[in-house]
Amino acid sequence: MLQHHEHTTALGTVTGTVFTVAANIDSHDYMKTAILALIGATVSFLVSLFLKWVWQRIKK
Questions:
Q1: Could you write out the DSSP letters of every residue in 2-40?
Q2: Among 2, 4, 52, 59, which one is most buried in terms of CB atoms within 10 A?
Q3: What's residue 3's pLDDT?
Q4: Which pLDDT tens digit goes with each residue over 9-49?
Q5: How far apart are CA 59 and CA 20, in angstroms?
Q6: What pLDDT is recorded for position 55?
């Protein structure tokens, strides 16, 4: 049995939720989130490079 989902209702609900949350978040929170994302991405990249270096040392 095929079920028909109303995508416009789901899309409207998700969009409304996103806009409501975005309107209630302070601008400082956006800045803090961006800074933490930048730090997280940098640390992840550096750890990846370090692990690659360690793996190459182990293989030799």
A1: -----HHHHHHHHHHHHHHHHHHS-HHHHHHHHHHHHHH
A2: 52
A3: 59
A4: 778 888 988 888 888 878 788 889 899 999 999 999 999 99
A5: 52
A6: 94
Distance CA 43, CA 46 (A): 5
pTM exceeds 0.85, yes or no: no
Measured distance CA(37)–CA(29) in Å, rounded:
12
Q: Which residue has the tokens 């692990």?
A: 51
Q: Residue 33 and residue 29: Cα distance in Å, rounded? A: 6
Q: What DSSP string runs through 33-49?
A: HHHHHHHHHHHHHHHHH
Torsion of CA 38, 44, 46, 47, to 10 degrees: 160
